[in-house]
Amino acid sequence: MKHSNLLTLFLPLLLSLLLLAPTTKAAMIQIDLGNAASGLIDGSTYALIPDILNAQAGQPAPFDAGIGSELFGDPANVNWQFNYGAIAESILSASFSFGIWDHDSAASGSQLDAFSLGGIDNTAALDVMFESGGGATDAQYSVYNFNLGAAFFADLADGNFSVDLDIGGTGLQTALFGGQVSETATNGYHLIYSSLSITFEDPSTPPSVPEPSTLLLIVLSLAGLKARIK
Q1: Would you indicate the residue range of the signal peptide (predicted)?
Q2: In a domain, 164, yes or no
Q3: Which of 74, 130, 178, 203 is the most buried (most CB within 10 A)?
Q4: Cβ atoms 98, 74 nearer than 8 A
Q5: DSSP assignment, residue 69?
Q6: Do residues 219 and 147 both lie within one domain?
Q7: DSSP string for residues in 5-57
Q8: Is the domain of 213 the same as that of 130?
Q9: Is residue 21 part of a domain?
Q10: Given its phi and psi angles, is residue 221 left (phi above 0), alpha (psi -120 to 50 degrees) or beta?
Q11: pLDDT grade for 138, boundaries at 50, 70 and 90
């Protein structure tokens, strides 16, 4: 079959597909717990505790105070929950993050006992993040990000998403005079914020179709192609 005949055959089909295949619209839920606008910078060191307490002022637990201590004992495990209402539509993507100060993963051993998202164990993944740079010095602020794949979608859809974090191990303490850093038998830290973002199909918005100008350009391009191959 000649190229011109192929073009004549498939041009109506192409235009029909463009008109009958609208683009799905998406909506997003964004929930922030704690102070997501603290101004603290990932990877930076904040040696003055008042800076951290100011960032936590007025926030809900566990984002309102220190958890555990380098001097007085390991922190208890903490839990926080996102509540946003059930999602009936198909979830397309999701992400999770949290900011933490002074978890001291540069100290010897592991500073993470357990970590789960929506009941799914993610201890190994977060431990790798901790040990590969986060908390590299005493009093460092670090942000950790997770892309939540399809394995999390069923739990996300019910409108409640829980996070469990258990930190322990040795810590780091900077001396008041001389600035010498030493290891401590216990560890403490401060949570600054946590965020959850979910993108899902939005049935309330009519699907979009290609703009008429876009269709016109396609038709003109095909017409030009047909003229060249005659």
Answers
A1: 1-26
A2: yes
A3: 130
A4: no
A5: B
A6: no
A7: HHHHHHHHHHHHHHHH-PBPPEEEEEEEEE-TT----TT-B---HHHHHHHHT
A8: no
A9: no
A10: alpha
A11: confident
- Return d(Cα 183, Cα 158) in angstroms, integer: 43
DSSP 150: G
Contact (Cβ atoms closer than 8 angstroms) between residue 82 and residue 158: no
The number of distinct structural domains making up the chain is 2
In the numeric block, the tokens 């592991």 are attached to 110
Backbone φ and ψ of 128, nearest 5°: -60, -40
3-class SS of residue 166: strand
* CB-based contact 42:141 (threshold 8 Å): yes
Q: Give the chain's end-to-end CA distance (angstroms, integer).
A: 13
pLDDT digits (tens, 9 = 90+) for 71-80: 887 888 999 9
Same domain, 181 and 118: yes
Question: Is residue 46, in this structure, part of any structural domain at all?
Answer: yes
Q: State yes or no: pLDDT of 101 exceeds 80.
A: yes
For the beta sheet containing 160-167, the strands, ordered from the edge strand earlier in sequence to the opposite edge, are 78-83, 160-167, 112-117, 120-121
Which three-class secondary structure state does DSSP give residue 177?
coil
* 140, 48: one domain: yes
